[in-house]
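The records we work with from here on pair a chain with its fold. The integers have meaning only within a learned vocabulary of local backbone shapes. A complete example follows; check for yourself that the lines match position by position.

:::
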Amino acid sequence: MYKLIRKQPIIALVLLIALIWFCWSKIFDVYSDNGFLPAFGLFICFVCFFRALTEMVKRSKAKVESEGVEHE
């Protein structure tokens, strides 16, 4: 999964959204009375993953730019 996120972040993000959509529907089916808490936890996981993904993209862009400067 880490290699997929690193090489194809868009595909990883689409897969994550599909997984969240599936889990969200299952959570609300099972916990229809108190579905807010598990859904909130899932939302926090999504935010953390998205933040890590954007940080990884920033680092890879900086690495590519620094490599480009060294070769010139």
